[in-house]
Specification:
The protein is mainly α and 237 residues long. It has a domain of 154 residues. Helices cover 49% and strands 10% of the residues. It has a 3-stranded antiparallel beta sheet. Strands 4-5 form a two-stranded antiparallel ribbon. The protein is elongated. About 2% of the residues have low confidence.
């Protein structure tokens, strides 16, 4: 092999090594939250897990979250417990201790996908419950689907930021894995609990109805029967 051929071969090998190194660098995930508030303002429904409920109960802050929790039937078929976003038309930052009714909006959840978290103060650019923030917020924008890690928000400004230690990366990955596990756990539990609660509510309503009927006078019962018959006749007509 001539000197020129050797040089060309070495050059090609060096190029291959450089490409490998470049690929490795591109694949390396680094993240530092820049507190840009983008995910808090436009993220939509935030899934809540049993882990979150346990932490809130242990820290005695569960009551602060209750006004904002809601059951959400996702289009894919899953039932999630979520922190429901608030409409951008509401310019006030809700205070869970002063006026929890602010969190309950009539707007369908599907129309609030790009709205802010009700527990985020836009003016101060701060989370009102940062120390007790949900597991989903702790791992964002990294998620684990049971097999692979994935970035759910490639536009997040914190992705690629330098300064993430190996320990922080390991912790974030472990948090993402826990989120996947906890989300699976609550998605199994919610439909069962929902049916049990609905059944108990119906039983209570029937019991209350029977008790009310038993306490009615004969005249009141006749009047009620007449109302029912009239309604049936109008419906039949």
């Amino acid at each position: 092999m001539s000197e020129n051929e050797k040089a060309k071969t070495e050059h090609k090998e060096n190029e291959k090594e450089e490409k490998k190194e470049t690929t490795k660098k591109k694949k390396k995930f680094t993240f530092k939250c820049t507190r840009c508030d983008a995910c808090c303002l436009e993220r939509g429904p935030i899934p809540i897990t049993l882990w979150d409920l346990e932490i809130w109960a242990r820290n005695e802050v569960l009551a602060n979250f209750l006004p904002y929790l809601e059951i959400y039937d996702r289009p894919g078929g899953n039932i999630d417990l979520i922190i429901k976003p608030i409409s951008s038309n509401d310019q006030k930052t809700p205070d869970p201790q002063q006026d929890p009714t602010q969190a309950f909006q009539q707007t369908p959840i599907e129309e609030l996908i790009d709205e802010k978290c009700p527990l985020y103060n836009k003016e101060q650019k701060s989370c009102l419950v940062y120390e007790n923030r949900p597991l989903s917020c702790r791992t964002y924008p990294l998620e684990f689907d049971g097999k692979n890690f994935k970035i759910v928000d490639v536009e997040c400004p914190g992705i690629g930021e330098e300064g993430m230690t190996k320990e922080e990366l390991k912790e974030m990955r472990e948090t993402a894995k826990r989120m996947n596990y906890e989300l699976t756990r609550i998605r199994i539990a919610l439909p069962v609990l929902s049916q049990i609660i609905s059944r108990n509510v119906m039983m209570d309503l029937m019991r209350q109805n029977m008790e009310a009927m038993s306490q009615m006078s004969e005249d009141d019962r006749k009047k009620l029967d007449e109302i029912f018959k009239k309604a049936q006749n109008e419906h039949s007509a």
